[in-house]
Amino acid sequence: MTIRVIIVDDQAMVRAGFAALLAAQADIDVVGEAVNGVEGVEVGRRTHPDVVLMDVRMPEMDGLEAARQLLNPPPGVTHRPKVLMLTTFDVDDYVYEALRAGASGFLLKDAPPADLISAVRVVAAGDALLAPSVTRRLIADFATQQRKPRRGDPSLQLNGLTPRETEVLELIARGLSNGEIAEKLVLAEQTVKTHIGRVLHKLDLRDRAQAVVFAYESGLVTPGDG
Amino acid sequence: MTIRVIIVDDQAMVRAGFAALLAAQADIDVVGEAVNGVEGVEVGRRTHPDVVLMDVRMPEMDGLEAARQLLNPPPGVTHRPKVLMLTTFDVDDYVYEALRAGASGFLLKDAPPADLISAVRVVAAGDALLAPSVTRRLIADFATQQRKPRRGDPSLQLNGLTPRETEVLELIARGLSNGEIAEKLVLAEQTVKTHIGRVLHKLDLRDRAQAVVFAYESGLVTPGDG
DNA sequence: CAGTACATCACCCATGCGGGCCATCGTAGG
DNA sequence: CCTACGATGGCCCGCATGGGTGATGTACTG
């Protein structure tokens, strides 16, 4: 089963180079080419390729919009190719847009030919592949932004809390009053107050509002997990 | 300038194989080996390698904890190697922990030898590299997770607030007291109370703690934007 | 067995906070 | 011109909240 590929790029030389490179592979067929996004979408719909090599910067319609249209087809169109984005420049901001659109990869045009070929095979197989510099940024963003389970500052202090105190803190962070917490945990309200007092003291917080802030910032609770 | 590498894996054959493979490269030196996380951290601190090849599953201390310790060194230790995680099994849940810990890459042990070698060079250069299946998952998570900055329910109600009220709500969500808010906005504390009263009423909230919850849940404030 | 950590509850006290009610002032809109 | 609305501010009141202190029982650990 050969991999059907189309190449969408406004530069004739780039198209020719990639086409020659890929066509030389026994398992890859170049079944179409296009010079801009509009044409790329049209060719994609008509030739239903497995993989679309898509340049980011193009006249008429850029690669991002074209990728979006190919990856979110209108009702009636069932074919969804894999999209491998290409760019001449290093990591511009389009990367994230492309990934959100559903692109399977992002390569720089100066990558070794062998990388391009293997990238086509990888995305055709349903996996994904990014240029190393892109991967690095993605991981960095992921690590900083994904602050849910583990975080440096607050979660360390969280370890100073007893299980019961942590439990109470979580209920505070849900917006419950002392009475409601007492009811929920089957406790006297005074006991709840004692626990809260300890929590505030241990975490150096002034009031329950700050406790809520801390709970969110530390990842004890997360927006949406209500 | 050669790349200094240490290999941390509990299986002797794996260590031997990788060591032979890497040592054959002119630009790579294998300067140490370790059989578990504890030893890995120790060897890492002593030999200050550029790259640490770290197995995920190991006795004593697993690769994740070891990676965390190497990547978040205690005060006084300035050396921070790049960590390239290795696993035999396909994408387990440890991937995300490893990335959060700051790992520069994640490869499967059945990857082609050429990939391993190039991966070492990539991470040594400061870039990152993931196994295609890992990349795929990361992109998928990134795409789905990225589109929730603002959510339906709460943010709609937010429109009912006046600019001033919204401003006050945000300060509540930072943990400020009425007095502090008054000072920050150059207002009488009583005015702050009036604004807060309206906010609570409009949003059907009981107290400022619930207001903080609402601010986070609606996306008005976000964990980490301090 | 002694010591420690945790959970539980009580009493007292000061006050920050939220509710109710109302007044003034500016500006935008009919 | 006059109305509506937002922003600003004041007063009073009641209560939930937070601080301080102490006591009891249990469970684990040295």
TrEMBL record, chains A, B:
Boundaries of every Response regulatory domain copy: 4-124
Please list the residues that carry the modification 4-aspartylphosphate.
55
- Which branch of life, at top level? Bacteria
Domain HTH luxR-type: residue ranges: 154-219
Keywords for the protein's UniProt record, in alphabetical order: DNA-binding, Phosphoprotein, Transcription, Transcription regulation
Give the matching SMART domains.
HTH_LUXR, REC
Q: What is the name attached to this protein's record?
A: Response regulator transcription factor
One GO biological process from the UniProt record? Answer: phosphorelay signal transduction system
